[in-house]
């Protein structure tokens, strides 16, 4: 029996509920039930109002789910625009203060140090150029490309390919690999000019003539022949009796130079003895250094030693940080010394000015010949806490740390939060921090010395310095959260960082205790940063989902999902 469409269904005696209205709007009610709802809403104002409200909310929800960027309300949009304009002023202030701090650091530390190096006869080169591009570990790298360098560059390229493997195609990676192999294959035969020798006793005999740099490692190293390049010495005792056209870089207990060196001498030894000739400069970090009466230095001498004795000839300036200095030879330039005592013997001759800062005035022999009266200033042994500039620099450095933390938290908010979260694992952070604190610099130095790659070693050391500076930011944020509670909102997070950093730096100024506090902060913070980096490259796998499937919620009988109301 078919229903008559002209017959109206009986209306409801009660008001409709929200579920019935939603099912009606979705077209999931039976035909008879839907006609009853439609008839009831025509007569009942309250149910008709409810149905229209639910229909309006359903449309808004559908539109919000389909839109990618939901428009903000007018008040929030206006606030966002004001905040965006304010951020320009904030970033301007940040970079302005950062530039001021960099200028203060340069004028307070770098420029005076650079002037000292220029006075020592290093020709006005910048400190970076002096230490790297004209220093001990760069000489000889400009004219040749060794196999180790090729391997280092290929290692960097392989690491880049592995890092961007999801962003490049296999054909691009293959092309990069083929290009690297072709570049290595086209190297000239002169790329293998460096020579390595090691053993208990290593010698370069008189009749030998080595073309290129040589690395000598052993208990006793002796060079009697000619080396047309640099000589790197790693030994207990080293004797340079021959001719070296380049530099001599010595890491030994005792280094004796009685031959001819056309370049510089860089010694990191216990004792350095020079009785031959050095055409350029001498830089020494030693316990004692002696220039005999037959010794001749064409350039300057820069020393950081305990005892310095000069009986020979120095062609340019003398820059000394030494406990005891004795000069009985000739210095063609000026003398700038700082230490305990300074003595000029009977044969001393100084053609430039003499400046000495020590505990007592210099002892000048009546037979010594000085171009001018020595300028003496007594060392003042006073605590740094009594000087106003100590607190000024503390404020400047604290502001620099806070500005760096602000930039870090705004540019890398996720990594910053991960580092702070990792800092709450105290044992792992301290243990890993001790390993990174002392292991990374040693690895970077060995990377440079063993020619694994100068770029890798310097880059690693720079990253280590950045982590060292960032450690107090991480620890300060943790301390700030201890005091003010945890938060995930960015500016509240930055506020806790500011409070914590100020507190950490103030505690670090306490006499005797402050040094231990700073060490603990560095170990803790560097370990947390390293742990966050490790977690980023090795993410933890989440808990396994239960194997038992979840039963779906039963639907009402005679309902269809998403289908129109049956006709």
Structural features, described:
Helix content is 46%, strand content 21%. With 567 residues, the protein is α/β, with parallel strands linked by helices. Strands 1, 3, 5, 7, 9, 11, 12, 14, 16, 18, 20, 21 and 23 form a 13-stranded parallel β-sheet that branches. The chain has a 10-stranded parallel β-sheet with strand order 2-4-6-8-10-13-15-17-19-22, with no helix packed on it. Helix 6 runs antiparallel to helix 7 and helix 10 packs antiparallel against helix 11 (454-484). The relative contact order is 0.06.
Derived structural class: alpha/beta
Helix content: 40-55%
Q: What is the 3D form? A: elongated
In angstroms, what separates the terminal alpha carbons?
A: 16 Å
Mean pLDDT: 75
- Which consecutive residue ranges, at least 5 long each, have pLDDT under 50? 119-151, 166-175, 183-192, 541-567
Largest sheet: 13 strands, parallel
Beta fraction of the residues? Answer: 15-25%
What is the tally of helical segments? 13
Total DSSP E strands? 23
What Rg is obtained from the alpha carbons, in whole angstroms? Answer: 38 Å
């Amino acid at each position: 029996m078919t229903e008559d469409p002209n017959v109206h269904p009986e209306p409801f005696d009660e008001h409709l509920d929200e579920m019935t209205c939603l099912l009606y709007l979705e077209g999931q009610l039976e035909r008879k039930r839907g006609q009853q709802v439609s008839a009831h809403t025509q007569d009942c104002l309250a149910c008709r109002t409810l149905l229209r409200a639910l229909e309006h909310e359903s449309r808004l929800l559908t539109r919000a789910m389909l839109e990618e960027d939901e428009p903000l309300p007018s008040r929030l949009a206006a606030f966002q625009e004001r905040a965006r304009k304010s951020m320009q002023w904030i970033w301007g202030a940040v970079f302005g203060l950062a530039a001021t701090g960099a200028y203060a650091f340069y004028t307070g530390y770098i420029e005076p140090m650079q002037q000292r190096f220029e006075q020592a006869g290093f020709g006005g080169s910048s400190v970076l150029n002096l230490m790297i591009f004209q220093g001990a570990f760069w000489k000889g790298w400009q004219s040749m490309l060794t196999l180790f360098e090729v391997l280092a560059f290929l290692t960097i390229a392989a690491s880049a390919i592995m890092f961007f493997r999801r962003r490049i195609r296999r054909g691009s990676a293959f092309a990069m690999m083929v290009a690297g192999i072709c570049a290595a294959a086209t190297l000239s035969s002169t790329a293998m000019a460096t020579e390595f020798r090691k053993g208990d006793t290593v010698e370069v005999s008189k009749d030998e003539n080595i073309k290129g740099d040589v690395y000598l490692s052993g208990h006793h190293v002796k060079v009697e022949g000619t080396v047309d390049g640099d000589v790197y010495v790693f030994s207990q005792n080293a004797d340079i009796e021959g001719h070296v056209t380049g530099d001599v870089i010595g890491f030994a207990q005792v280094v004796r130079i009685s031959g001819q060196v056309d370049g510089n001498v860089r010694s990191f030894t216990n004792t350095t003895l020079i009785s031959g000739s050095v055409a350029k400069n001498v830089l020494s970090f030693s316990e004692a250094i002696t220039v005999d009466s037959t010794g001749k230095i064409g350039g300057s001498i820069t020393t950081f030693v305990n005892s310095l004795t000069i009986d020979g000839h120095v062609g340019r300036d003398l820059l000394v940080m030494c406990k005891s200095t004795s000069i009985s030879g000739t210095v063609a330039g000026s003398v700038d010394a700082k230490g305990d005592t300074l003595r000029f013997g009977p044969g001393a001759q100084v053609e430039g000015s003499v400046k000495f800062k020590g505990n007592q005035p210099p002892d000048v022999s009546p037979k010594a010949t000085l171009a001018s009266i020595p300028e003496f200033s007594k060392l003042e042994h006073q605590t740094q806490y009594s000087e106003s500039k100590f607190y000024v620099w503390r404020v400047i450095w604290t502001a620099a740390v806070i500005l760096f933390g602000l930039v870090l938290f705004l540019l890398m908010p996720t990594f910053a939060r991960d580092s702070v979260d990792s800092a709450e694992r105290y044992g792992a952070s301290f243990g890993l921090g001790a390993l990174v604190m002392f292991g990374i610099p040693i690895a970077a130095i060995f990377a440079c010395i063993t020619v694994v790659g100068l770029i890798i070693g310097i880059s690693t050391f720079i990253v280590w310095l950045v982590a060292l500076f960032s450690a107090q930011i991480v620890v300060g944020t943790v301390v700030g959260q201890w005091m003010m509670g945890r938060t995930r909102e960015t500016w509240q997070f930055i506020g806790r960082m500011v409070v914590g950093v100020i507190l950490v730096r103030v505690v670090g100024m306490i006499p005797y205790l402050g040094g231990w506090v700073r060490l603990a902060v560095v170990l803790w913070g560097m370990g947390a940063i390293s742990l966050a980096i490790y977690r980023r490259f090795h993410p933890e796998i989440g808990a396994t989902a239960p194997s038992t499937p979840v039963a779906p919620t039963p639907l009402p009988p005679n309902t269809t999902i998403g289908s129109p109301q049956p006709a």
